What does this fold into?
Amino acid sequence: MSTTAKPKRMKTGGRSVLWYLQQDWQLWIMLLPAVIYIFIFCYMPMYGAQLAFRKYDFAKGIYGGDWVGLEYFKQYFSSTMFSTTLVNTLTISFCSILFSFPAPIVLAIIINQLKVQKWKRTLQTTVYIPYFISTVVLVSMLNVLFAKNGGVLSDLLKFLHIVPEKANLLGQRQYFVWMYVGSGIWQSMGWNSIIYIAALSSVDIQLYDAAKIDGANVWQRVMHIEFPALVPTIMILLIMNMGNILNVGFDKIYLMQNTLNLKSSEVISTYVYSLMAPKTGAPQFSMATAVGLFTNVVNFIFLLLANTISKRVTGSGLM
Amino acid sequence: MAKKELSFTPTRNRIRDRDAADIIFHILVVVLSILCFLIIVYPLWFVVIASISNSDLVNQGKVVLWPVDIRFYGFEQIFQDSRILIGYRNTILYVVGGTLLNMIVTMPAAYALSRPDFRLRNPIMLYFVFTMYFSGGLVPTYMQINRLGLINTPWILLVMVLINTYNLIIARTFIQNTIPNDLYESATLDGANHFRIFWSIVLPLSKAIISVEILYYAVFHWNDYFNALIYTSNTDIQPLQMVLRRILLQNEAFANGNGGVQGGYAQSSADQVKYAVMIVSTVPILLVYPFIQKYFEKGVMIGAVKG
It folds into this structure.
């Protein structure tokens, strides 16, 4: 029984909405702005997503157009853009998870192992910095550092023979994913490591001592003490990532797009934007809504899948 | 160290092996940490030296480690550019006003959801969490905002993300886990209602999470160009990031060697402006961090325990 409950709070038979409001009215007032905002800005657009099944009619508004059923979904699935956008989105997503996800974990373990406190602090503070750089600035940094002629880092990569002499890292489509994922790691690795460092700092020191006595070397200590301590955090973050698998960030990709790499860089979110605000021709609102809705449903399925698998395997999940 | 533990361990060899493995591991860790440091720092350092070097030499790839032919033309140009000043003014308004609104909405809601005696707590939580994973999509949201008459007004950039569910969850978790129940009990006995408890007990004890929230929201507003791109077209109300986009990205073709020459600027310093803009637009938000770093790590730790 909670202590702040008033004595008159007894079991009532039929509980109406009013009853709930009456009981906690002060808390409801504190929640009200957030609840209303979410309703207007999130739930009402969800209702508006029915536009995906209607022909958009400028005069009659979002709910007024003729019902066309799955017409726009069929149109999207049968267009060439479907496979292009889906493949690009999945490629970028999976590469991000595969490479960007482990990076902060490794960094956290490295930082945690450093013995010289001054160096540890310096490194920790430095790796946070890129997080504060805006996407616009980040993309323009990529443009100068990896420029085809005279880009300092593209010259370095060519010198090390990692890329061929004639490579144009910003223009050729096969490099797009690597530029995207690499810059993402550079920007957010340090920031994302904070949560893992926090998890590591809560590991019981006695465990280390016991392992040392048992003759475990430092590598074994990392694998058998530190890594298991990180698993719950890793699982939760991984599930949350899976729920966004088709939500590859619009911001950076849109800014990185150019006419040369478009075949690799057109993802679902940028495609939706180009349908909604095309450079030429009329906007295709219904089609854009349908594509958006499709993304949402797929994301949701991935989230549920990841959650179920995680619950089966590790016993911890989101819901 | 090895001597002291000798009596506990089965054999001398095992200790020797262990110590050898440890040394290799530590060397590896140090090398990797230095590599990490260089990878993070070099691009930042390059922007700094390029902003004060002769742009021709920068473009030819001749400025690598130290500035060459130092000049400050770029910085001088920036402070005369009205686009940047207007963008700066707008961004500051959006960051300060937007973050303030975020906090006013997020913190009371987090408190309400942290109370175990709040009936319907779980359904309401679900109401928020659902929006993290499902949305109406870009077009319906746009139309909704259009209907509210917020397109092309500064208001939309203030309220577009009035509350972020993730931030709400970490604030709720923090309040739930750090404020002892005894405090609530005694406050209730003294006749304090929820508003009073929130204002006089919860807020003063939540400095750590408040600083985390402020940082998250402020960085979001500072970096946000997406909402400005979608919902505004009037350059007078657009934030700095949109101005940056025009200056840094739209004026130049990519990587074909002839980009970046801006009319009127002296040729050999033209690109200095770009680098200077990058620095001037990043430093202010960077300076905020050290001030709240102390609270920040503690706040992240406690707030994120349960994701």
